[in-house]
Automatic annotation (TrEMBL):
Name assigned to this protein: Chaperone protein DnaJ
Record's subcellular location: Cytoplasm
HAMAP family found in the cross-reference section: DnaJ
Residues the entry annotates as binding Zn(2+) 1: 140, 143, 197, 200
């Protein structure tokens, strides 16, 4: 079951950013492991705050539910990122949580991308492969993200002496502090190119159009979301975000879906209902012969095994045919006489 981040922080869905921040501070102070609190609870609180304090992530969460799985950019108790505190004063956090941060380095992560794909009913049942064209930040095709002109060498970054990190001092209400941050000059790699890539000018990344192949699994439902890890935007010196594909399934003129079964309506004349018959039905995957037993009533069902929605590689749901008996609105004199005779027989 998806987590309810509002419930975790104890705030209403309409809570302001300030209310979210206050709720987080109170709970973080209570559950922080360095103060004897519950580490798993603290991580859950932190995860909720990272989503609800970010306007974009909160909007996507409100719309789609919890689509930000473990790679969604939130930090754990061992690597809390003060840069994501959205207005928190470092001194306030330090005052509340003492040795709260500074023991880990958060890996940079590219932006997630959300798109929608429209499918017809048959494609949703049996699956399909789609190719979509995305405009996104991707690694430079020339230097492959290194930022260096191909064939040239790199040299040690003089700003960080090849460490990839630098020390940064600051002050809080408790006094001076020192923390280690990534070197912006070399983007935490410890080295810089001797000659910058002419294609991306040393950035390592570029905005470009990229074709992506998306495999839609059989049996997907309308509104479901496919996650492609690493399919989002990239960031120099970090990891790629994810691509989320929301599936929109068109309605079918004949079939509806109920779980793994496909349901269709079949109207038959009174004579067929009384005497029975054999019909050729256009199923979702081809024509099949269906025997209609004598004496069937309106509202009864015929079940054809294994002609519904695939549940795995070996099994499928059923095709369910809902019978309705058509009563004629007009009768010829001959037909009326025959019906009257049947009526006399108690039929």
């Amino acid at each position: 079951m998806a987590k309810d981040y509002y419930e975790i922080l104890g705030v209403a869905r309409a809570a302001s950013k300030d209310e979210v921040k206050k709720a987080f501070r109170k709970l973080a102070h209570k559950y922080h492991p360095d103060k004897g609190g519950d580490e798993s609870k603290f991580k859950e609180i932190n995860e909720a705050y990272q989503i609800l304090s970010d306007d974009k992530k909160r909007a996507e969460y409100d719309r789609y539910g919890r689509v930000f799985s473990d790679g969604a950019g939130h930090a754990g108790a061992e690597g809390f990122d003060f840069g994501d505190m959205n207005g928190f004063d470092f001194g306030e956090i330090f005052e509340d949580l003492f040795s709260f941060g500074g023991r880990g380095t958060r890996v940079k992560r590219g932006r997630d991308i959300s798109i929608e794909v429209d499918l017809n009913f048959e494609e949703s049942i049996f699956g399909v492969e789609r190719r979509v064209l995305l405009t996104k930040v991707a690694f430079c095709s020339v230097c492959q993200g290194s930022g260096a002109e191909p064939g040239t060498k790199t040299k040690s970054c003089q700003t960080c002496n090849g460490a990839g990190t630098v020390k940064e001092s600051g002050r809080s209400i408790l006094g001076s502090f020192m923390r280690v941050v990534e070197c912006k000059k070399c983007r935490a790699t410890g080295s810089i190119p001797e000659e910058l890539c002419r294609n991306c000018r040393g950035a390592g990344v570029m905005t470009k159009r990229e074709e992506v192949s998306v495999k839609i699994p059989p049996g997907i439902r309308d509104g479901e979301i496919i996650k492609m890890s690493g399919g989002g935007e990239v960031v120099a010196g970090g990891i790629a975000g994810d691509l989320y594909i929301r599936v929109n399934v068109a309605r079918h003129h004949l079939f509806t879906r109920e779980g793994e079964d496909l349901v269709m309506d079949l109207a038959i004349p009174v004579s067929e209902a009384i005497l029975g018959s054999e019909r050729v039905i256009n199923a979702i995957d081809g024509q099949i012969k269906v025997k209609i037993p004598p004496g069937i009533d309106s509202g009864e069902f015929l079940r054809i095994r294994g002609r519904g929605v695939p549940s795995d590689e070996k099994r499928r749901g059923d095709l369910v045919i809902r019978i309705s008996v058509k009563t004629p609105k007009r009768l010829s004199p001959k037909a009326k006489k025959l019906i009257e005779e049947l009526q006399g027989e108690g039929i």
